[in-house]
Amino acid sequence: MNNTGRKTAPEATPDGHSGFATLSGNRALMVEEPLIFEQDSPGTSGVDLPEPPTAALRLGAVAPRGRIGLPGLSEPTVVRHYTRLSQKNYAIDTGLYPLGSCTMKHNPRLNEKLARLPGLADIHPLQPVKTVQGALALIDELAGWLKALTGMPAVAMSPGAGAHGEFCGMLTIRAALAARGESRPRVLVPESAHGTNPASAAACGFIVDPIPANSEGRVDVAALLARLGPDVAAIMLTNPNTCGLFERDIITIADAVHQAGAYFYCDGANFNAIVGRVRPADLGIDAMHINLHKTFSTPHGGGGPGAGPVVLSAALAPYLPLPHVVHDGAGLRLVEHRSDTGATGVELGRMKGFHGQMGMFIRALAYILSHGADGLRQVANDAVLNANYLLASLGDVMTGSFPGPCMHEALFDDRFLKDTGITTIDFAKAMIDEGYHPMTMYFPLVVHGALLFEPTETESRQSLDQLITVLRGLVARAQAGDVGFFADAPRLTPRRRLDETAAARKPVLRWVPPVAD
Ligand SMILES: *Cc1c(COP(=O)(O)O)cnc(C)c1O
Predict the structure, then answer these.
(1) Mean pLDDT lowest for which of 224-238, 273-287, 324-338?
(2) Does 401 share its domain with 354?
(3) Are residues 444 and 270 in contact, defined by beta-carbon separation less than 8 angstroms?
């Protein structure tokens, strides 16, 4: 058995690392880690427990090990296994994470500390409401901030992420139309939109009608106006948009949409660029989700928890989903049934169980309160400044997609790689060898071979300068025609470039069946 606890030789020793293969299959501190079931050593245990008393088992005399098949492991083996797994992740805690459209900012430890307070962490959603008044007050206070920051009169707190918020917002629009006795089939979505926008509209039963972008990376207003009509339910627009640009014609668009009797859904995933500076209500928006896990710094990625509250205009507020918190004489009350409010709107019901992602609410409120209104405005200023620093520092060697400054994201296309034989993905793989998580690639679709960088406000000047130095070096290497270097990247990772198609089509799933005694 080697130091990984593996009983058999590694299936495949990573090779091709400059022709150098280790005996263990490890790459220095990057240790080949087998599944925990493959480290099973029957009879081994991390704890000394007294032998259980023998008793007849009601379901038949089956030995516990045979029944549930847990591996036998010592405590050091377990600790090493999970520590090694934790080290395999690239995270915002390990380095700059410029993934555009994701707002991978530092997650302050204060948020984590508060989310773990026993009075918040140990309560249960089914406790009597009078015993969780503090939790309701917290939801209510966060809701108050979201309404103040957006200028909107109502907010649905329960959606579990941005995409779920879009779904919620589009359901409120459908309900508002139904209340008017209308069923408008079409929703206009710009071509640069995040894929969740058309998906959410379609999931609500709407037909998605794509709107082209103009040569400046913004919505083609003329094309949009031409599509507006009595069959349009809504537009879904992102602002700042996914090209990192502010939609300057947004008020004209909002007016036209309302004139046509439709609603304006705004994808608020990029709120970080304008928080504290622009109130979406003042732009004529009817519904907008806020990704708490982006703008308000809760850990995300890897499918981790998110939260996507949706702010609603007066026109859509009557269709707020359940539950929500209201003030009455006795304190805070939870509205769990439409009849509780006396509202006669179309019943939207619940978006999910209970009240939403409570742990995310605590973190987001901690973040908001620790920044204050002025601090949040500074966040937006600094996020935009950092992105423009990248854009300006790379503009002479990489090809910026659109003229002029950007908002919180710097978007490049792949013209700087033209005729080199090197693609955006080759370039990204070379960044991995340099210790960077790559930027967002090939999104938005309106730009060829897109490279979308979102540094966020939490990166320092030094860290941006280091990234810029690396990128400039890689560009020089690409333009010198070093195709082999890029085709071979990444070289320094535990696995080389994966065949992503085969990985999706023919996944190798390992499962060690439980051993019956
Ligand atoms: C992240 C994102 C979404 C989806 O949000 P999730 O919280 O991941 O569901 C939608 N639109 C844009 C522009 C985004 O960046």
Answers:
(1) 324-338
(2) no
(3) no
